[in-house]
Amino acid sequence: MRRVGAAAVAIVSIAVALTACTKSADTLDLTSPTPTSVEGGPGSVTEWLGVLRTEAIVDSLDDDTAAVKAIVDGSIVVSPVACFDGLPASFEPDVYLLRVVAPTREDLERLLSHAGRSTIFKGQVRTMCLD
User: What pLDDT score was predicted for residue 43?
Assistant: First the structure.
């Protein structure tokens, strides 16, 4: 009986760890832009992103997410900072990003121009959490 309890705790721990990088209820990108390349082996891709905001409480991004989504549609995503390699070290690892994503730098610039919002970071990063 003790092994069953330990196994259940292990399974729940793994499930929590895996869902920390997806937060699908807050991910509005239903079409997932095509990544420019695959780097770092399976489980990671490189994408261009423009970060509009960061917040420790994901629900704090709801209003801005809805407003920007109305402009850029499926190119907006909310994800934990911990899901990316290549972001500035000044981003706290336990906050969420409101970001616009695109397969190329040119596409990102076009989307950000339409959104009419300033960014706190623009660049190419490696995405470690995939839906």
Answer: 59
